[in-house]
Every structure is written in structure tokens, then in C-alpha cells.
Amino acid sequence: MLSAGGALAQGTALPTGDATAGEQVFKKCTVCHSIGPGATNKIGPELNGVLGRTAGTLPGYNYSQAMKDAGAGGLVWTPETLTKFLTKPRDFVPGTKMTFPGLPNPQDIANVIAYIATFSPDYKPGAAPAAAPAAEPAPATPAQ
């Protein structure tokens, strides 16, 4: 069992999540997102490695300007920030193109985060955010 761990800004401890139960909750997400081996972007970005990643930075996905701005402003996906986002995405990131209204049950949120965490093996709470992979450098042009 994987714990969502940590505490929200209000000081409320996050419920402990169950990844197996979270896999069932994640089925609500599969209309727009994929995760696991072979995951690809759909209506929403694929979610492998999302924990610890700066919001709006997965290469190859066309994020809303609001999500790009949230990332530029320092939003990093952690159990705490995902909890807030998954509760009411459009309240947490106004202008996001995510139309899902949110998960009302805190235990469902903790469970889905625990499931997502199984696909973020490099996530270390408190570590610096994962940088987006650098773009391929342009080929050098000979001096004229």
C-alpha cells in the first residue's frame, strides 16, 4: 500500500491511499488520460512520472495557457497539489481545459494518487521538480 502522505495547507492530513482501489477510480480518468507502459497523450496528457513534474511541461502535449502559466508560477504535482486539483480542477487552475468536475470523495482522491504514484518511481517528496526533457539541439550551421 502506498501512502499519499503529507498535509494540506490547511493542516489536514491526507488520507492514506490504496493503489489497488485507485486503479478502479482511475477508470474515470481513462477517457482523457493514459498511464503505464505504452501510455500516450489523449485528450489529456499521459500521466507516467507526473508526481514531481512541473505542471504544463510534458513534451508533446498541448497544454492550456492556464496550465503552462501555473507551471511557470511554480506548480509542481505532488500528492498535496494533486489532491487540491482533483477536488475541483477548474477552481485550482482557472482556465484549465480539463473539463472533469473533480472527485468529491477524499478517499477516492487518495487512492487514485496512490495508483498514479506507482507510475512515478522517481518521485521523492521534497525533491526539486523534474525538469522537462530538453529539446533536441538544432544542427549547427556552418559559418558563412
E-strand count: 0
- Main β-sheet, in a few words? none
Per the principal axes of the C-alpha atoms, what is the gross shape? globular
Q: What series of H and E elements makes up the topology?
A: HHHHH
Distance between the termini: 62 Å
What's the helical proportion of residues? 25-40%
Structural class by SSE content: mainly alpha
Strand content: under 5%
Say what oligomer this is.
single chain
Mean pLDDT, rounded to whole units? 85
In the predicted model, the low-confidence regions spanning at least 5 consecutive residues are 1-11, 134-142
Count of helix runs: 5
Radius of gyration: 16 Å
What is the element layout, followed by pairings?
Blueprint: H1 19-26, H2 65-72, H3 79-87, H4 89-92, H5 106-117
Helix pairs in contact: 1-5, 3-5
Descriptive report:
The protein is mostly helical and 144 residues long. The chain is built from 5 helices and no strands. It has helices spanning 19-26, 65-72, 79-87, 89-92, 106-117. The longest helix is centred in the C-terminal third of the chain and has 12 residues, at 106-117. The protein is globular, with a radius of gyration of 16 Å. The chain starts with 18 loop residues before the first helix and ends in a 27-residue tail after the last helix. The model is unreliable at 1-11 and 134-142 (pLDDT under 50).
